[in-house]
Write a structure and sequence with these properties.
With 457 residues, this protein is α/β, with parallel strands linked by helices. The protein folds into 4 domains: 12-82, Rossmann fold (3-Layer(aba) Sandwich), CATH 3.40.50.2300; 137-288, P-loop containing nucleotide triphosphate hydrolases (Rossmann fold, 3-Layer(aba) Sandwich), CATH 3.40.50; 292-395, Helicase, Ruva Protein, domain 3 (Orthogonal Bundle); 399-455, Homeodomain-like (Arc Repressor Mutant, subunit A, Orthogonal Bundle). It has 19 helices and 14 strands. α1 (12-21) packs parallel to α2 (38-45), α5 (125-138) runs parallel beside α6 and α12 (295-313) packs across α14. The protein binds adenosine-5'-triphosphate and magnesium ion. Magnesium ion binds next to α6.
């Protein structure tokens, strides 16, 4: 009557067998069955990763078992004797919930696609602008200077620039300028002839040659010495260079992308960085904001990392607890996205399977202040959050939460339309109390329809 495919089985044992073989949206079971009991059927149906809902039928007066069934994850219970209509209402409620859940999952994936560009997640408007800029300048050969604190995603930006350019079929070569002393960096970048210096046993090509027709990414460009600055300036001006120990100019066709955590203008003002080189590098500046300035990205990234790490570790965590969310949103992330990533990875390792991530899973401290433990100097995460941190509280709406709300509103409106505005019927279908529905309507500004007393409770 309600458009479901139904499989009926005579005993509990048959039920368990069927559940193991096939996937069901809903299992309806009595608690007392021939074969095995209803609780075993329930346990099987709610096993690992299952999205199956269970409706339990109980005898009049067996409240204890009904409570136990609810604890084991039953969707609802119904007491014998019951009217067929009652049963159908619950089935319809399960149907609506499953639909909502699926739509919610789809929505989440759509959002992720929408907010993801070459592995860079960004829902925040500043990040959206950064991503738009990447798309625009990737196709050009302009030199790009990426500026941002540690862990903000500068390397991801460099990758995206290369991947979206016509040079993507050629190499993207990366050099960390801070990792090498001056003389070695010079040889690394420009190559050297055999015998150019002690230890130069054979001729070697430099990174500029390797990156020919591709992209050269110079990380921590603020660290290069005056000598290397001069050489770099020359390549940028003349598009030629010489290997160390040679006078023969080599031509190069390289797109240069540099990154720095430093304020290069300040370095210029203090005489540590050549002004002419700065202007050559700063043709297109891309500033990646710190994570604390892009609250909307926190949960988007956290949920993404939770999902990928869970898959890797084959663990099934049920999202973040309310408190974990609040702390995540309040924390200031001196290590930016890298710190958030590490934190969530740790939570997946420490968190209990099938449970929501709790604050101590994130900070990793047994005696974290959240658990009432001794305040640990180094557990900045929970203590910062608990003392109010940036005093942002839960007022911040993540992009995902905003999308969910907009979806919820549309869904309530569509259910109300289907039942001709009857809030009593709608609340039953939605599985909400009339009061809860009334509050949601008020919050979303959904007007009350005819009949049904206008929706006031
Ligand atoms: N917007 C983002 N979405 C998803 N992951 C991100 C984002 N930004 C950074 N990450 C991840 O955070 C980590 C740090 O990023 P990345 O190495 O690009 O930062 P960085 O700015 O180069 O840091 P550093 O200055 O310390 O070198 C990486 O694992 C990266 O994948
Ligand atoms: Mg980096």
């Amino acid at each position: 009557a309600v458009g479901c495919d139904v499989l009926a089985v005579p005993t509990g044992t048959d039920g368990i067998e069927a559940i193991r073989e096939k996937t069901f949206d809903l299992v309806i079971t009595d608690l007392r069955l021939p074969g095995t009991d209803g609780l075993s059927v329930l346990r099987t149906a709610k096993g690992k990763e299952s999205q199956t809902e269970v409706l339990v039928i109980t005898a009049h007066g067996s409240v204890d078992t009904a409570v136990e069934a609810m604890k084991l994850g039953a969707f609802d219970y119904i007491t014998k004797p019951f009217q067929m209509d009652e049963l159908l209402l619950i089935v319809e409620r399960v149907g609506s919930m499953i639909m909502l859940r699926r739509e919610n999952q789809d929505l989440k994936h759509q959002l992720e696609e929408k907010f993801c560009f070459n592995g860079i997640l960004g829902a925040n408007s500043q990040m959206r602008a950064v991503l738009e800029k990447i798309k625009l300048v990737a196709e050009t050969d302009s030199t790009v200077l990426i500026v941002g604190e540690s862990g903000t995603g500068k390397e991801l930006v460099a990758n995206a620039l290369h991947q979206n350019s016509a040079r993507k079929g050629y190499p993207l070569i990366k050099v960390s300028c801070a990792a090498l002393p001056e003389s070695l960096l010079e040889a690394e970048l420009f190559g050297h002839e055999k015998g150019a210096f002690t230890g130069a046993l054979r001729q070697r090509r430099g990174r500029f040659e390797m990156a020919n027709r591709g992209t050269l990414f110079l990380d921590e460009i603020g660290e290069i010495s005056p000598v290397v600055q001069v050489k770099l300036l020359r390549v940028l001006q003349e598009r030629t260079f010489e290997r160390v120990g040679s006078n023969e100019p080599i031509e190069t066709d390289v797109r240069l992308v540099c990154a720095t955590q430093k304020d290069l203008r300040k370095e210029v003002a203090q005489g540590r960085f050549r002004e002419d080189l700065f202007y050559r590098l700063n043709v297109v500046p891309i500033v990646v904001p710190p994570l604390r300035q892009r609250q909307e990205d926190i949960m988007v990234i956290a949920e993404h990392v939770l999902e990928t790490c869970s898959l890797k570790l084959n663990k099934h965590l049920r999202g973040f607890s309310q408190q974990a969310r609040e702390l995540l949103l309040r924390y200031s992330y001196p290590g930016n996205v890298r710190e958030l990533e590490n934190m969530v990875e740790r939570a997946v390792a420490l968190g209990r399977d099938q449970a929501a991530v709790q604050p101590p899973d994130l900070c990793g401290f047994q005696s974290c202040p959240y658990l009432g433990g001794v305040q640990q100097e180094s557990c900045g995460f929970c203590s910062e959050g608990l003392t109010g941190g940036k005093k942002k509280k839960d007022a911040t709406l993540t992009a995902l939460a905003a999308a969910r709300e907009s979806f919820e509103k549309d869904y309530i409106v569509s259910v109300l339309e289907r039942v001709d505005g009857s809030r009593t019927t709608a609340s039953r279908i939605l599985g909400l109390s009339r009061k809860a529905l009334w509050e949601k309507c008020k919050r979303y500004g959904i007007p009350s329809a005819h009949g049904d007393g206008g929706g006031g409770d």
